[in-house]
Specification:
The complex is a heterodimer of chains A (359) and B (355).
Chain A: H1 3-14, E1 28-31, H2 35-45, H3 49-52, E2 56-58, H4 62-72, E3 76-78, E4 90-93, H5 100-109, E5 113-117, H6 124-137, E6 141-144, H7 151-162, E7 168-176, H8 198-214, E8 219-225, E9 234-241, E10 244-251, E11 256-264, E12 267-272, E13 278-283, E14 289-292, H9 300-317, H10 329-341, E15 343-344
Helix pairs in contact in A: 1-6, 2-9, 5-6, 6-10, 8-10
Chain B: E1 7-10, H1 15-26, E2 32-36, H2 43-46, E3 51-54, H3 60-67, E4 72-75, H4 81-98, E5 102-106, E6 117-119, H5 131-148, E7 153-158, E8 160-162, H6 167-178, E9 183-185, E10 192-193, E11 195-197, H7 198-210, E12 217-221, E13 227-228, H8 229-239, E14 246-248, H9 250-284, H10 286-300, H11 305-311, E15 315-317, H12 320-326, H13 334-347
Parallel strand pairs in B: 1-2, 1-4, 2-3, 4-5, 5-7, 6-15, 7-12, 8-11, 9-14
Antiparallel strand pairs in B: 10-13
The chains are: A alpha/beta (359), B alpha/beta (355).
């Protein structure tokens, strides 16, 4: 994204958001009633009874929408989101990734605010269109890249920004989690609906952190995946930015310690992806020490609640969301580049030669 | 079976089922249908542009739907005892009704029970005293009943299958070896470890599925070498580049196995009723997490009495029938098989990791 576009968007955000159509609490629709809606968004919304009593749940599977509406005490259920758009101020989009763009564009064009699940869209060009549409209409486009708010990542960013560690020299970031998300529709693996594999899914957070820490999109050096035409389950990406080089390994096929390690001129930061309470930091001549993180957020559910709460607050009172759509454009673009440049790992157990992991 | 016929693999998200689907795809058999129980287990298969269908074998209607239009079923789905037996019954029912040309059933060498010496396919089926073996015997008996009803059945009895994606004999064993707590079990693991590398097994299954005269037959499938379990542990350990395994005498091994049983049961019970608070405690306290990890490792690296019974077994599963009739020739010796295992473990980030 050019600096000019970025500034134009930032200015557009300073305009007034469309006024609420309702007096009092905003009226919301939650579009897409899959596992993420049931596990994260609806429990978070339950903490806002005034919002919940007017909430409309939308899903092509009407039975599923009705079931969740009655379970969580929402106002009602629909099978077509268009029926809800005249009556709501905002939507939370938890549909398969390929539907983020068309539905968000329609909502935003009508001045309906959007909180969109990650990844923002299946390509940077589509994500950019969404951001531009939000700028034009003044509607809020918030992105649920909640891991930015996890204390371990936010604290790392603060440490880098403080300058106490000097220049960033290397980033290593490993995420290995056997895929077991209880996807109701299977959209992750349906060629018509999936937008990629582990790179687009887990990589959404990982590359968002990296772009955020670096302050810009890095330059891609290499990208290896294990795709035979479907969504990849293992990926390795190498990149550089200025004096910093980086390596990312992602796996949906195995579980190994999920961690990140940043080497700087004057120290190191090491963290575990699921340790919300501490970081290992070494600076100057001092020994490595574990620093406690003071945040009140101790689980991803806590942060999820914060994102939903912030969205409700922003659309009610104005201001910018904690993570706006434009904030994540760099990472969406970088992931596109990873896909465009991807070559396949050598996998001798299938009789396929080529570069292997870590070579 | 013609090369381009439509094949449904049940249990396709499992170790062997997954390999079958992948191999069929890589061989150019485009009409492979991968039957899975739920989408949460589809990540491995979805890398390949194959048709994935929901096929929970406990759901008769879904199984029939998944099987509709296929000419061959390779039935790999299994689960706790009831699932293995009733799921097989549902799959057989659907196959018979739909007129499937061949039903290949993945049984196990466990159906021979705790025997020793050379074991060929003529040995009677008997219980080995474990739930897995019992359910496999029952499922296989069902298969032979359906053969009588006119469904062409081929039964495969694999031995100890290892290779990329194997949880028990590759990933878990590698973790145990990496933990530094695994031992050479002196006098307790000198039985024959009938290893078969996964791609050899898959070749054998496909040869049997494609062979006209294999209907109504059972085949043992094992690898080209007969090494002991202790040798397997040592070879795997060396392939991982780990320091030599220390020995443990037979009395200590048996004592530990017996003493660990009550602890194992108590922890299982505690996890069943208090999993959430236990996990929350681990999340909140690094010390609690470390302690739990230690106990977990201790339990995992202490063989159970039934493991010791397997490691001590002197049975050699003979594959002469498969060699003669199907031209089955296993290509991977243990050294080459383990080399593939280690390269795959590295690929998925599990080589060189302390558990």
């Amino acid at each position: 994204m050019s600096r000019g576009t970025s500034l134009a968007m930032a200015k557009a955000d300073e305009r007034c958001s469309p006024p609420l159509r309702s007096l009092g609490s905003p009226r919301l629709a939650l579009i897409g009633c899959g596992a993420i809606a049931e596990r994260h968004h609806l429990p978070a919304l339950r903490e806002y009874p005034a919002v919940m009593k007017d909430l409309i749940l939308v899903d092509r599977d009407g039975d599923r929408a009705h079931y969740l509406a009655s379970r969580f005490g929402a106002k009602g259920a629909l099978t077509d989101y268009r029926q809800a758009l005249d009556d709501v101020d905002a939507v939370i989009l938890t549909v398969p990734t390929n539907l983020h763009h068309p539905i968000a564009m329609e909502c935003l064009s009508r001045g309906v605010h959007v909180l969109c699940e990650k990844p923002l869209a299946e390509s940077a060009s589509r994500a950019r269109e969404m951001v531009e549409q939000a700028s034009r209409t003044g509607a809020v486009l918030a992105a649920n890249y909640l891991q930015r708010l996890w204390p371990q990542f936010a604290a790392t960013r603060e440490l880098l920004a403080s300058g106490s560690l000097g220049q960033l020299l290397s980033i290593k970031y490993f995420v290995g989690e056997t895929f077991d998300w209880p996807s109701v529709s299977g959209f992750y693996f349906n060629s018509a609906t999936c937008a990629g594999g582990v790179l687009r899914d887990r990589g959404a957070h990982v590359f968002d952190h990296i772009c955020w820490w670096l302050g810009a999109k890095p330059m891609l050096l290499s990208s290896l995946t294990d795709s035979f035409g479907g969504p990849e389950a293992v990926a390795e990406v190498c990149f550089t930015k200025g004096s910093c080089v980086g390596e990312v390994r992602l796996s949906w096929l195995s579980t190994f310690p999920c961690r990140f390690e940043l080497q700087c001129e004057s120290g190191t930061v090491k963290g575990e992806v699921y340790d919300f309470r501490s970081l290992l930091v070494q600076t100057g001549q001092r020994r490595e020490r574990r620093i406690a993180l003071p945040s009140g957020d101790r689980t991803k559910v806590d942060v999820g609640r914060r994102i939903v709460g912030d969205f409700i607050n922003v659309i009610s009172k104005g201001g910018s969301p904690l993570i706006a759509g434009r904030d994540v454009l760099d990472s969406v673009e970088f992931i596109d580049e990873c896909y465009a440049a991807a070559t396949r790992f050598g996998m001798p157990w299938y009789g396929i030669s080529g570069a292997e992991y870590g070579t | 079976m013609a090369h381009r016929e439509t094949i449904l693999v049940t249990g396709a998200s499992g170790f062997i089922g997954g390999w079958l689907v992948e191999t069929l795809y890589l061989q150019g058999c485009a009409d492979v249908r991968a039957g899975i129980r739920s989408w949460s287990s589809a990540a491995r298969l979805a890398r390949f542009p194959v048709r994935i269908v929901l096929c929970d074998v406990m759901n008769a209607e879904q199984t029939t739907q998944a099987m509709s239009g296929v000419s061959c079923v390779i039935h790999c789905a299994k689960g706790p005892g009831k699932v293995t037996v009733e799921g097989t019954r549902n799959a057989l029912d659907a196959a018979l009704r739909l007129g499937v040309n061949r039903f290949v059933h993945l049984s196990s060498a466990e159906v021979y029970g705790d025997v020793s010496g050379k074991v060929d396919e003529s040995f009677p089926l008997q219980q080995a005293g474990n739930q897995y073996g019992e359910s496999k015997v029952e499922a296989e008996r069902l298969c032979w009943q359906y053969q009588q009803m006119g469904l062409p059945i081929t039964v495969i009895r694999p031995s100890i299958v290892y290779g990329p994606f194997s949880k028990t004999w590759t990933v878990d064993l590698a973790r145990n070896l990496q933990s530094g707590m695994w031992r050479v079990l002196k006098g307790s693991a000198d039985g024959i470890c009938n290893l078969v590398y996964i791609s050899d097994l898959v070749s054998g299954i496909l040869l049997a599925a494609r062979h006209e005269k294999a209907a109504g037959e059972a085949f043992n499938l094992s690898g080209p070498e007969a090494i002991t379990w202790n040798e397997y542990f040592q070879k795997f350990n060396a392939a991982l580049g780990l320091p030599e395994l220390r020995p443990m005498d037979s009395t200590s091994v048996k004592l530990r196995a017996a003493l660990m049983e009550p602890a194992r049961s108590s922890i299982k019970l505690a996890l069943k009723h208090f999993e959430r608070p236990i996990r929350q405690t681990a999340q909140r306290s690094r010390h609690a997490k470390r302690l739990m990890r230690y106990f977990e490792q201790r339990i995992k690296t202490t063989p159970r009495p039934e493991d010791l019974s397997l490691y001590d077994r002197g049975a050699l599963y003979v594959t002469a029938k498969a060699q003669d009739m199907l031209d089955y020739t296993p290509a991977y010796d243990v050294e080459r098989g383990l080399e593939m295992c280690v390269r795959w473990l590295d690929h998925v980030g599990l080589a060189g990791q302390a558990a």
